[in-house]
Amino acid sequence: MAVHPEPKPSVVVSHLDIVYEVFGAKRGRAVAAGEEEGGLGMVERLLGQREEKFGHVQKVHAVKDVSFVANVGESIGIIGRNGSGKSTLLRAIAGLIPPTSGSVWLSGEPSLLGVNAVLLGDLTGERNIMIGGQALGLSAKEIRSRFNDIVEFSGIGDFVYMPMKAYSSGMGARLRFAISTAKTPDILMVDEALATGDADFKARSSERITQIRKDAGTVFLVSHSNNTVKEMCTRALWMEKGRLIADGPAEEVVTAYQKTFPQKKKPSSKQTSATDS
Ligand SMILES: Nc1ncnc2c1ncn2[C@@H]1O[C@H](COP(=O)(O)OP(=O)(O)OP(=O)(O)O)[C@@H](O)[C@H]1O
Ligand SMILES: [Mg+2]
């Protein structure tokens, strides 16, 4: 592990709250995640902890009073169940969602790489590399010089000349990761994108994440794969219903999470899964 005697903060999140306002929600019917939890969900709603209804505008309190400091050289996994606020937290750090209250401070340029990152399905991988590279601040010449590396890293071969809508989700995710890391970002944020990769791609992305940390970057990784977080992260944040309930060494936090929410073994399935096998 890289040793940084004096931690150098790269991200400071202070008392962050994010409340979404959903227009057009049907009155009297809850839409927030966790609905399947039955009785508990209802109690929380009655206590006003989950959502408040104002006419047809429904509020979803997705991130609640979250504070932490991330340092240069750390790779931080964000774990938690569906709807716990992981993606919202990441998008807020990336500056894509303004804080409802509290603040986010960054010392560098963030690069968010998510399942919904803006790659255009109608365009070829090649065009998306050009556009994505420019969005990262690379010149056309720089992108051309890195083009082969990007394609090689993504492992999509000649598919790069096909429209992206013809890609499998794994191929799309791999190309996204390759583009987003073509220029070493100060703060790399990855939301689930590695989940669809095969073992070989995971090994390559793990190497690249380590490289980014060594090059004085900070990496955030949202993942439902406990093993991926254990293997790739130095630290983990555990989100539960919008709150940060644990923050510490990845191994410890993930182990505590696994004890609380053991993952059921799936009967043998050929499908690539976002969860651990
Ligand atoms: N654009 C949005 N508008 C309104 N509510 C939203 C929006 N995005 C997320 N939410 C709500 O905010 C809460 C947190 O969602 P978020 O996507 O951050 O969770 P998550 O931890 O990333 O979940 P998952 O593991 O399923 O990806 C959920 O209750 C969700 O329904
Ligand atoms: Mg998410």
TrEMBL record:
Domain ABC transporter: 46-266
Domain of life: Bacteria
Protein name: ABC transporter ATP-binding protein
Family: Belongs to the ABC transporter superfamily.
Nucleotide-binding is among the record's keywords: yes
Record InterPro entries: AAA+_ATPase (IPR003593), ABC_transporter-like_ATP-bd (IPR003439), ABC_transpr_TagH-like (IPR015860), Bact_Polysacc_Export_ATP-bd (IPR050683), P-loop_NTPase (IPR027417)
Disordered: region residues: 258-277
CDD domains: ABC_KpsT_Wzt
Keywords of the record: ATP-binding, Nucleotide-binding, Transport
UniProt organism field: Intrasporangium calvum
Region forming the signal peptide: none
One function term, GO molecular function aspect: ATP binding
